[in-house]
Design a protein that fits this description.
With 208 residues, this protein is mainly alpha-helical. Helices cover 82% and strands 0% of the residues.
């Protein structure tokens, strides 16, 4: 792959990641936070800080750290609206996972270990969102489009990492992309279920 193609892929992935975050941001600000996992988005924000550090100080890739940096403000607003301080147990678990998966391995084995640990974190962080979708009576706050954008971005980053031979983030991104696909599929199913329930209630609503 020539250098121009690599640049186009990386910047397209950056824009896709920003679109993914913005779509979810718009969803929670216009339709509410129902069904959205505070733990998942807290971990997204923490992991974003890691990718900024890794891209700037280890991979020396402007587009890598900047792609996380531009999403950080929107992620922060999403987390603020989800009020993770009201769910202290889940928030402490998220912080503990980030420290155990990303920080400690980095201190022991360097950036590569930390990236593999972050890959584990990126997969695990999707689990609370899946669980929330399965348990919540209302998933109207979850944007399926956001997660499909995330899948597309993952595919682009995989191509980018493969070309520049960054195998640790490639494996992490493959795992996170599969998790995003699961959430997007489940969110669509939940939205359809809720739409059918609305129609049922309207059809069988008492008249008069």
């Amino acid at each position: 792959m020539n250098s121009l193609s690599v640049v186009l892929i990386s910047w397209t992935a950056l824009l896709g990641g920003l679109a993914s975050t913005y779509v979810q941001f718009r969803r929670v600000t216009t339709q509410g936070i129902e069904g959205v996992s505070a733990v998942t988005w807290l971990l997204f924000t923490l992991n974003g800080g890691f990718w900024i550090s890794y891209g700037a100080w280890s991979a020396h890739s402007f587009v890598m750290w900047f792609s996380s940096f531009v999403c950080w403000p929107l992620q922060g607003i999403i987390v603020f609206r989800l009020a993770p301080w009201r769910r202290l147990r889940g928030s402490f678990q998220a912080i503990g996972l980030f420290v155990g998966a990303c920080v400690v391995p980095g201190l022991v084995g360097g950036w590569a270990w930390s990236v593999y640990g972050c890959g584990v974190s990126m997969v695990v962080l999707r689990t609370p969102q899946i669980r929330q979708l399965l348990r919540s009576h209302d998933a109207s706050g979850v944007s399926a489009a956001s997660w499909y954008f995330s899948v597309g971005c993952a595919a682009l980053w995989i191509a980018y990492y493969a070309d520049v031979h960054l195998w640790a983030p490639l494996i992490a991104t493959v795992c996170s992309g599969l998790g995003s696909l699961a959430i997007a599929t489940l969110a669509v199913a939940r939205h359809r279920q809720e739409d059918r329930e609305v129609v049922r209630l309207e059809v069988f609503a008492p008249v008069g």
